Structure formats: C-alpha cells, structure tokens
Amino acid sequence: MGYCTFKYNEKLKVKDAEILEEKTQVEEKKQIITEDYEKLKLKVADMEEQYLKEKQIIIDDNQNLKTHIYEKDKVIAKLTSNEKQIITDLKEKELFIAKLVKERQERVLKQPIKETSSIGLQFNYLIPSMDSLDSSVIIAGQKLFILQGDRSDSLQWEKYGFRLECPQRAVSKDTEVAVTALAGGNFKVPKGTIKTTGNRATTLCGSKED
Fold first, then answer.
1. What does the pLDDT look like over 92-124, one tens digit per residue?
2. Which of 7, 66, 176, 181 could pair covalently with 140 via S-S, beta carbons 3.0-4.6 A apart?
C-alpha cells in the first residue's frame, strides 16, 4: 500500500510539473502576444498620427492653393480691368488724335494760298490805300498766305518772283499775310512796300491772327 501511494505521488508530481511547464509556456506565449499587440498598437498609432499629419498637410496645401488661386484671380481680374481701361483710353486718344489730325489737315489744306478776285471781300483790311497809286497801275494779283509761326516758313509766288522767308516764332501762330501784285505805270509805292526785282514790288499789308 505504501509503495502504491509513493508511486502515485511520483506520477502526480510529474503531472504537476508538466502542467506547470505548459502553464509557463502559455504565459510566455501570452506575454509575447501581448508585447506584439502593444507593438502593433504603437505602430498603428504612429501610422494614424502620420496619416493625420499628411492629411493636415494636404488640407493646408489645398487651402493655400485655393488662396493662391483666389489671389491670382484677383490680380488677373485687376489686370483685365486695367487692360480694358487702357484699351478704352487708347481708343479715346486715337479718336482725339484722329480729330486733331483731321483738323490739322483741313487747316493745312486751307492754309497754303487763298486767292481772291474781289478787294471788297477778303482783302478789304489788307490792301494798301489806292490813293497813292497812279491811275494806270492795276492789281495784277492777290494771294493770302498763312504763316505757322511755330516753325520756319517760306512764302513763294513764282509768277511774280515773290519769296519771303519767315524765321521760327517771328510771327504768331496762323498769321495771315496778304500779298498784292501791282502792274503798269509809274507809281509811288505805299509805305511798307518791298522791292523784289527791277520792275516788281510787293506790298506786305497788316496781318490778321485767328
């Protein structure tokens, strides 16, 4: 009986040892699993934190891009508005310049020579007194010149050999000069008459400014 009890106790001890070993192995595996789980949790937490950081960076970049686009749109709108204003101003200036050029051309076309056949019309205030002329003297021709005044000018009437050089700013702008060509007889020319050739004289009369 005592021998059997001893043998049974030995078996029980072996069994307890096996159970304890298994329990230890389970605990070790559990510890490993726990450690792996904690590591995994940390890794997931790190990945989540990195994801949130990258997500925030993307959000910030999108916001910055929207702001940048908005600012650029504002600049483009301003430039477009300025361009339209510049185009409008240029068109207005072109119209104004075209108007000035047209007026200038019209004045130039009227300017070179104005000829008249009647003393009573344009030359009333320009013709010298006829009282000092011999009765046989006739008016061969009359011409009206316009001097610019702001530049050197030259008046020529080739038919009667008349030429007059006028320096820049010697007269006011758009000064009218009446030239009367006299022919025939012996006469005393009025005061202010300039002899141009041996048998020709030209009288420069009072000028009129526009």
1. 888 888 888 777 767 655 544 444 444 344 444
2. 181
